[in-house]
Amino acid sequence: MKNALLHICCAVCAAGSIQRLREDGYEVTGFFYNPNIHPEEEYKKRLEAAKGAAKSMGFELIEGHYDKDGWALSVKGLEKEPEGGRRCEVCFKIRLSAAAGLARDKGFGYFATTLSISPYKNTKVINEIGDSLGHGSFLAYDFKKNDGFKRTMDFAKGHNLYRQHYCGCVFSENKNIRSS
Fold first, then answer.
1. pLDDT in tens, 5-22
2. Which of the four, 85, 93, 140, 160, has the lowest number of CB atoms within 10 Å?
């Protein structure tokens, strides 16, 4: 079986993505790395939900460092960007860079991200960033295809997973942009 590290943004998105990767023959380890999530209480809720999903779905979960200050510095000057603009691209690159590095360091053959399951995220941009970092090891999925988003939402409801109402950063929180 092929091993893959899956960057996880939240438990809801993890559920559908992990099911799909398993169907495609991958043994999956989760990587919860989201320094963008604001406020810290929200980060903790999402982390606990991801831990619960890992336990119920039977996968290992690695927690990345919560560096909200480093994230804020990385997006400084992009505060007025629209949702889905350059600030989001920087955020995707931060998280996918960490996943690519961890995958390399821990000997995973592949890495992917749950970000593409959201109908509110630009899968083309996400996959281009992943491809540029992965050098052949990035699994460029569009997890929302074939009712992926609907299936993951149904799973979340059926398993009473915590569902948030914005992507995670302070800018989307202020606009209440739904992510899952």
1. 999 999 988 988 999 999
2. 160
